[in-house]
Design a protein that fits this description.
The complex is a heterodimer of chains A (379) and B (475). The model of chain A has no long low-confidence stretch (mean pLDDT 94). Chain A is globular. Chain A has two domains: 169 residues, FAD/NAD(P)-binding domain (3-Layer(bba) Sandwich); 145 residues, 2-Layer Sandwich (D-Amino Acid Oxidase, Chain A, domain 2), CATH 3.30.9.10. In chain A, strand 1, helix 1 and strand 2 form a beta-alpha-beta unit. By secondary structure, chain A is of the alpha+beta class. The two termini of chain B are 32 Å apart. Chain B is of the alpha/beta class. The longest helix of chain B is centred in the C-terminal third of the chain and has 21 residues. Chain B has three domains: 197 residues, FAD/NAD(P)-binding domain (3-Layer(bba) Sandwich); 138 residues, 3-Layer(bba) Sandwich (FAD/NAD(P)-binding domain); 68 residues, BFD-like [2Fe-2S]-binding domain (Arc Repressor Mutant, subunit A). The mean pLDDT of chain B is 91. In chain B, the strands form six sheets. In chain B, strands 1, 2, 3, 4, 5, 6 and 19 form a seven-stranded mixed beta sheet that branches. A five-stranded parallel beta sheet of chain B has the order 8-15-9-10-11. Chain B has a three-stranded antiparallel beta sheet with strand order 12-13-14, with no helix packed on it. Classes of the chains: A alpha+beta (379), B alpha/beta (475). Chains A and B meet through helix 7 and strand 21 of A and helix 14 and helix 17 of B.
Chain lengths: 379, 475
């Protein structure tokens, strides 16, 4: 039996499982906790934006709006994904020159975007602070209900024949003659890798790569906080809002609520595997949000959450490569808080890579080579 | 930013009997004590509005009973103690042990601010156990506790067609207070189980320990029976009506009964209000006898976090008398701890306290939570805010959802404005029943600050020391 093994049931794990199962392969997913318990889960929605993205990831976003709509369609038109546009706000004079350069670069990569004057910003999103001087607007960007999407894909993967096992942490990957041969679970089971091995356990990847291959990735874990307001029908969030110098992201949320986030850390307790919000972080994040949308000031906060681990990489882009010295093993981790939007593109490329045994050029910027590590010395 | 009230030796949350008693001891020992109270006058739930009643409606003292009147002496002692009483203050968080400093997040005069005490005492009292049954969300159904609050604060009395249902000492106390005011409820429907042999034996023991309290309680029940139409062994309670309550139905004595009424007051006992202590990361355990969560306590009131003590009904229901005695003990314990920074040796419990424990053991067994409210039927709404039914919780459990926190992702249960207070216990119990685990194994909602409503503006304007937190860049 040539069974593919996937480690991790976040969006990457379930998407690859679904893709493989649909190709008629036997797939088993091993998830240390539960489906979508890491960065793919939790309250609120995730941005699907090309605008303001790290330039090395831009090429992965050119097909994203179409790919996300197609996925929604495949899932039975659930509308997890919603095109809302993305408004990247500018307040400071000194940010204008780089904004021009960014617009030009994004357009040259095929991303439809433009620079807006202040009055055009308020037309797209009423209620913005008067300090907004301009914005980069990208029509095709959107948001996605990440938790619902990941669960729906997991169900479809299972319907297509994939087996998803929850609460099965993997302790070690065994390699023999440049092939991953089996994985050992922490309760002592040994599961054969008949086909390929995909290690997509975002926050658990660095530890497993180090224990199994002796390679220390420049990746660390953190939990980022998310806040959701009470229902506020009179403050309509029309678009996904980001900012050139303030660390804040504002999205609409089900039930007329507003989601506020943007990269403010909580505190992760390793022993209990729980994240706690920090009051300084809450306050700092909300101060930024209220500076952008002053009408938020009178709105109550219903929920805070820092319960989902994110893996950050030292140069703010993920590592996507073969497992060291291993022809049938692939890993991807360290999404640095913006791995959601590129998931469909990356999964397609990795599946292609595994089928044709040839690394896709679009993934080259994310290889271990940028850290001076060569995974297959003979290639 | 450094106003004088920025720091203190001890901050006490709650000005009920336990909080007041602890404050009196600490203030007497010259500790700088701040008492934070959500209400506008000291007294907690049990002595709610007692100073106001004495000042403005002294004639009401009579019907509220002498137990209530006893609160006035305590509030006077508290006001004269020298403790700093800050009323109308809500506490929305206590910093976790991972944060650099112990701090309490407050909303006071409309602004959010932090208070940095050396030690915290949580005396947050009790709350009513949720009572889910078919129709409990209809306007016209409310809790006995809420009705009693209206009685104490503004002498609001229900109309004669009122029906009381459920079980627990408060139900009978309230019935007694109504009787004193000349209001005779249409019916009192007791949903509790009949006394077990064990409970009867404990009753005898309680009678020896605290004869006055037991005899008085028996008299309340007896008068409810003889003068107010008490029905025992009631089950399958339902509230009906189109947009508000118009009638109720129930089963008793082997047949179904219907009553038309515009007001149904329900009660199924009280449980510790552990929202703040859970959010502060204090260890709790599940008390299966009373089916509620209680903090793990060492000594008189030390918790798993050394800088936080707890006392009063929040550590396990004991009533006002126990709360005062324990409050004093915890006051001494905290004073000693601040001196030596070592958990002091446990002082022997006074005799009165041990006698009260025997009474409590009886009450806990005599008034067990009503089974049908613990595991409601599929159609019954469990989470009022998001309108999630017991059936939906069972469905997500069947789909592999193992705990209350996960159920939030599936159903939004517990994510509305009450932040789960009304459904936490029920959801854990339903999950435990479905999977065949104990509630202790299933666990409780993770409670995250803010645990009280607070606005974006209040939080954004809060004085911060931002050098401790750095955002990760624009994501």
């Amino acid at each position: 039996m040539s069974e593919d093994i996937v480690i991790g049931a976040g969006v990457y794990g379930v998407l690859v499982a679904w893709a493989l199962a649909r190709r008629g392969r036997e797939v088993r997913v091993l998830e240390a906790r539960n489906i979508a318990s890491g960065a793919s889960g939790g309250p609120g929605r995730r941005g699907v934006r090309a605008n303001g993205r790290d330039l090395r990831e831009l090429a992965l976003m050119t097909q994203a709006p179409k790919a996300w709509l197609a996925l929604d369609e495949d899932l039975g038109a659930h509308h997890f994904y919603e095109r809302t546009g993305h408004l990247l706000l500018l307040e400071r004079e000194q940010d204008l020159a780089s904004a021009h350069a960014r617009v030009q670069m994004q357009q040259s990569q095929g991303i439809d975007c433009r620079l807006l004057a202040a009055q055009d910003c308020s037309r797209i999103q009423p209620g913005l602070t008067e300090n907004v001087s301009a914005a980069i607007y990208c029509d095709n960007d959107g948001v996605c209900d990440h938790d619902g999407f990941t669960r729906a894909v997991a169900r479809r993967a299972e319907e297509s024949g994939a087996i998803i096992e929850e609460n099965v942490p993997v302790a070690r990957i065994e390699v023999d003659g440049q092939m991953a041969t089996s994985v050992l679970t922490s309760d002592g089971r040994s599961i054969d890798v008949g086909g390929n091995l995909f290690l997509f356990a975002n926050s658990g990847t660095a530890a497993l790569v180090e224990s199994s291959f002796g390679l220390k990735l420049p990746i660390w874990n953190t939990c980022l906080q998310v806040m959701i307001t009470e229902p506020t029908p009179h403050i309509a969030i029309k678009t996904l809002i980001g900012h050139a110098h303030r660390t804040v992201s504002i999205k609409s949320h089900a039930g007329d609520r507003v989601m506020i986030s943007g990269g403010w850390p909580g505190n992760w307790d390793e022993a209990s595997q729980q994240g706690r919000v920090l009051s300084e972080s809450i306050s700092g994040n909300l101060a930024e949000a209220a500076a952008v949308l002053p009408s938020l000031n009178g709105i109550e906060i219903d929920q805070t959450n820092a319960g989902h681990l994110e893996a950050m990489c030292v140069d703010d882009i993920p590592v996507i490569d073969r497992l060291p010295d291993c022809r049938n093993g692939f890993f991807a981790a360290g999404w640095s808080g913006h791995g959601w939007a590129i998931a469909p593109a990356v999964v397609d490329l990795i599946v292609h890579w595994a089928e044709h045994d040839y690394p896709p050029a679009l993934l080259a910027p994310f290889s271990l080579q940028r850290f001076g590590v060569s995974v297959l010395p003979d290639q | 930013m450094n106003t004088p009230s920025h720091t203190c030796d001890v901050a006490i949350v709650g000005a009920g009997p336990a909080g007041m008693a602890a404050a009196c001891v600490l203030a007497k020992n010259s500790r700088d004590v701040v008492v934070l109270d959500e209400q506008n006058g000291p007294g907690g739930q049990v002595y709610r509005g007692v100073d106001k009643v004495f000042a403005e409606r002294p004639e009401d003292v009579q019907f509220l009973g002498k137990e209530y009147a006893a609160g006035h002496a305590l509030t006077r002692r508290f006001r004269e103690s020298g403790a700093c009483y800050r009323h109308g203050v809500s506490v929305w968080e206590i910093t976790s042990e991972h944060e650099p400093e112990l701090a309490i997040g407050l909303i006071e005069d409309g602004s959010a601010r932090m208070l940095y005490p050396r030690h915290v005492i949580l005396a947050t009292g009790a709350m009513e156990r949720p009572v889910p049954f078919e129709g409990w969300t209809l306007p016209g159904v409310m809790t006995v506790g809420a009705a009693q609050t209206l009685l104490k604060s503004s002498r609001l009395v229900p109309r004669q067609d009122v029906v009381l249902a459920g079980t627990g000492p408060l139900l009978y106390l309230y019935a007694r207070q109504l009787k004193n005011l000349g209001v005779k409820p249409q019916a009192i429907l007791d949903t509790g189980s009949s006394l077990s042999l064990r409970a009867s034996l404990l009753g005898l023991d309680a009678l020896i320990a605290c004869p006055q309290s037991v005899l008085q309680g028996m008299q309340w029940v007896w008068s409810a029976k003889s003068e107010m139409g008490l029905t025992k062994g009631v089950h399958a309670l339902r509230a009906q009506g189109d947009d508000r309550l118009s009638s109720i139905s129930y089963e008793a004595g082997g047949r179904r009964h219907d009553l038309s009424t515009s007001l149904l007051l329900v009660h199924d006992g009280v449980i510790p209000n552990t929202w703040l202590s859970m959010s502060a990361g204090i260890r709790h355990r599940f008390d299966s006898a009373q089916s509620c969560w209680v903090p793990e306590i060492q000594g008189a009131g030390m918790t798993s976090r050394q800088c936080i003590s707890m006392v009063g009904d929040v550590v396990g229901i004991g009533g006002a008398q126990v709360a005062v005695l324990q409050g004093e003990r915890v006051g001494h314990e905290v004073d000693e701890y601040l001196k030596t920074r070592h958990p002091p040796r446990v002082s022997v419990e006074p005799f009165v306290l041990r006698r009260q424990r025997r009474l409590r053991r009886f009450l806990d067994h005599a008034f067990l939570p009503t089974a049908e409210f613990q595991l409601p039927e599929d159609d019954t709404i469990v989470c009022r805010c998001e309108e999630v039914t017991a059936g939906e919780i069972r469905q997500v459990a069947a789909r592999g959802c193992m705990g209350p926190n996960q159920s939030k992702a599936f159903t939004r249960c517990g994510m509305g404005p009450c932040m789960g207070r009304q459904c936490a216990l029920t959801v854990s119990q339903l999950m435990a029943e479905f999977h065949g685990f104990s509630v202790a194994e299933i666990g409780h909602y993770r409670i995250r600050p803010p645990i009280r409503p607070i606005t974006v503006g209040q939080l954004a304007d809060m004085p911060r020391r931002l050098e401790t937190v750095e955002p990760m860049g624009n994501l």
